[in-house]
Amino acid sequence: MNKQLFNISPIIIKLKNNSYFICLILMVSIAFLSNSLAHATAVIGFNPGYIIDDSIFINNSSMSVQQIQDFLNSKVPACDTYGTQPSEFGGGTRAQWAAARGFSTPFTCLKDYSENGLTTAQIIYNVSQQYQINPQVLIVLLQKEQGLVTDTWPTSNQYRSATGYGCPDTAPCDSKYYGLTNQITWSGKMFHAIMTNSPTWYTSYILGNNYIQYSPDSLCGGSTVNIQNRATQALYNYTPYQPNQATLDAGWGSAPCGAYGNRNFYQYFINWFGTINYSKVPPLYKSSSANTIYTISGDNKYELTSFEIIKAYGLLSYQPVIVSDTFLSSFNTGTTISSTIAKKQNDISGILYMFDDGKRYPITIDACKTKPDGTSIINSSWKIDCFNSNTTLSLPNELIDNFTVQDINIPNVVIYDNSAWKVENGNRLRITDPIFVNLFGGWGVTREMQTINIPKAQGKILIPNESLVKFSDSPSIYLLVDAKLYKILSPEDIGYWRLGAKKIYIIPSSYNESDPLEISPEYLKQFVIDANGTQYILFPNGTKSILPANIGSLQPAQYSQIPDYIINEIPTVTMPQAFRADNGEIFTIQDNMRYIFPTIDDIVYSKIPIMNIQQVSNNIESTFNYGGMKMSNGRLFKVSGDDTIRYVYDKGESLAVYSVNIPYLPYDKIITVDSTTGANYPVVGIYK
Amino acid sequence: MKINNHNLQNKKKIITIMSSLFVIISLIATYPYANRYYENSTITTSTTKNSPNLINYSSPSQYEIQDGSATKNSSINNSQSNNTTVTTDTTKSSTRMIITALSQNGSTLQIRVQINTIEDTGVCTLTLLKSGSNSVEKSVSSQTLANTSTCKGFDIPTTELSPGTWQATITYDSSKHSGSIAKEVVIN
Predict the structure, then answer these.
(1) Which of A441, A459, A581, A635 stands 20 to 30 A from A653 (CA)?
(2) Is B86 within the bounds of a domain?
(3) From B103, which residue of chain A is nearest by alpha-carbon distance?
(4) Is the whole model's pTM more than 0.95, yes or no?
């Protein structure tokens, strides 16, 4: 069928040059055509080794005589008794076509046919009871062999060999088996003999491996088929061919090397009687007068309360069968299926499952909210109310086994909405780095889940601790420490806090909306204080020093407070004696005051190694109040506004130099200092 | 000249449009028929428990009707064809045979055969040969099935067969037909 549709394409292309409108019309037409023919789809589910359940095959109570009669009536609404309608096969009217082949009117439809005073329905019923064969099997047999059930003008030879019994492929039918009753009876007899494994009835096939051809033509080949039950064995003894894939793909159509008997048996049985396999009983039912969807098992019907529930239990792909209210009311009302947490009714293990998209995940105790005795489980992942009979269902085994597939134990990491989530404490936490997936067991125990089971995204997003974080709607960058964000004010902090190797995560702000990470009022500074009150100064090279006690206590605004393990990751070095700010100022710190070296000489003569001068930011420089100049011994200076030359004597003292004739004093290096500095070097005598 | 071409093109367009419309109208007209089964497929049921017993009392679908017609046509044609090939020739004709099953099932070698004729008067003979071993020969009668016949056997105890590869040959012989087929089987 598809082949025919594709063949139309060239026509479209040719017509393009003439009119796009025509193309459009044709395309719509093709879509329409394909839609109308879509029902002629490939046969799905045909198992050559298991065509129909034994129990269905021998269910001789499936229909009463009246039901058989009603069924036959329904398939032939109007019989063309005198063949007045045009023949489907050409050759004039049906009567004329038949006459040309030696058959005369009136044509008696199957529903009206009788033999020896018995209607077809009665004959079918009688044989079904005599040989314990489902009358539906016999009905399908009449259709697949002679088309009798739907035929509006059957000929006498169709009744003569109604079930095809005694009709080899390459020879005339054996008259020994002629006649409707005879045919149905022989069919029932053979089926019964095979179903009961009669020791006096031999078959061409065994239960197990058999070679079965695709068609009567041996050149078409065949394959080994593992016949798994008696009913299938019986059907092959009737029609000794299996459909090849092309025949199955053809739906009702034909295919090269096709044999259609068993394929059509399968199709007719399903179309007319619902199922060929109890494990494939149509799972969904809907009343013709209401929208409620049920599944049925045993004597009970179970309402499925939502689309999500139907999906979770693996039933979404099934079209609900529309049934009468009478049918539904004949079943007891079972548990309403409104939860996806359930266990099998008959399962000694009592395993509780979570259902999601046709899969079932055994629930482990650590996913439960409480233990059986009601005590809480700390660090429960899913916080499932496992022992609450109001929310955990007990469902028929077959409902669980037939439509869902067991998977791994309930996972702690799930993929949902294109993101990975850690399920924790009944919430889901968005995972932003695969490293977490590995930490929580890896991808092998991670599953994509789709339905109502997924907890709300109420947990904080999972970003590796000590990572840098930037949200998409803000330029700010933070250091994440223990789910708290510490803002980084300047690029220099990268060096001070050794952040250069940290991974930066740029996160959509929406990820952080449900339970946002806390933003600390603290930001990263160049001083930090640990839990013991020890004060540190950080340096741009990623080291730190303990501030000497004589510096005094820093003000809270001056330092960061952050967990000690972060502080401890920064190597500690000996406190330098001198610092160089970015502005070039070189200073030392004493008593929380900043003292500036006026010249390199003052540093050298103070015996401070130049290499040990620690680079710091202007920020640090400005943190300490100016305390004056730090001059070395022997320095000559003047205080601004005072022409007195002073000599730095020792220990912050000075001597006045009143004579410029004193040899050896470096008069050419006299500097002028402010009064603050001058006050730091009080005159204690006269230089002589 | 140009005018003539133009008229010709117009005619072609009109024909094409009319053809397209015809196709569309035909499709629309047949659509309800094509979907008849599916639109009317309300299923009533019996109340047999444990297995919802659905009986579809709706009219047959177009596919069922078409398949039924094709089956009828094929059946009648085959019937006519086969009848015309009946002869009174008394010579035996060969019949095709298929070994459908040939495998060791525990301590039994199971052999099943399909004979493409319907006769219960024939004789099937199985011969098992293996180099260095005594041959095994069994004969049984045939039995009819619906469209074929089969041999009333064979289940051979493997105690009668030494391990190794055996050549199994089955011959069929009746007053009207004869046939033969062979295949190897390994006995463990």
Answers:
(1) A581
(2) no
(3) A209
(4) no
